[in-house]
């Protein structure tokens, strides 16, 4: 990660949550790119595959809402996954206009193979924090983004033990 110039006066920028979240987001993108460099996948595609794997038949509309993404952005992100046979599009039973997505057998095998790499990406992203700091930060961000009430999230056992 490029270090910010030390000679600049940043004024109130480094005290603004939005400014710091932007830099944290960019750092997360960089780490993901490093860890998944040998895979043809973006962070948005990874998150989408996780959502589809756990919710077969999920609609485009629901994916967009879950990812806080514009439909056109999501369409662009999904196209390579559909083209490569990772994701399948299917008409929803009882509603011929609605399309649902599910992983193909090939997609499921591939995603389950690369999915554990996300732990390495997360470990690299939070390398400068203690386990307690990391848990506290994630808890606060989940509250701030109102994600703490979704699906009764609990940290997976494997992650808890490593920190």
How would you characterize the largest beta sheet? 3 strands, antiparallel
Q: What average pLDDT do the residues reach?
A: 90
In helices, the fraction of residues equals 55-70%
List how many beta strands DSSP finds: 3
Structural class based on helices, strands and sheet pairing: mainly alpha
Folded structure, characterized:
With 163 residues, the chain is mostly helical. It has helices at residues 17-35, 43-54, 60-67, 71-83, 105-114, 117-125, 131-144, 157-162, and strands spanning 58-59, 87-92, 95-103. Helix 1 (17-35) packs across helix 6 (117-125).
List keywords for this structure.
about 160 residues; mainly alpha; 8 helices; about 55% helix; elongated
Summarize the structure.
This protein has 163 residues and is mainly α. It contains 8 helices and 3 strands, in the order ααβααββαααα.
Break the fold down into its secondary structure elements and pairings:
Blueprint: H1 17-35, H2 43-54, E1 58-59, H3 60-67, H4 71-83, E2 87-92, E3 95-103, H5 105-114, H6 117-125, H7 131-144, H8 157-162
Antiparallel strand pairs: 1-3, 2-3
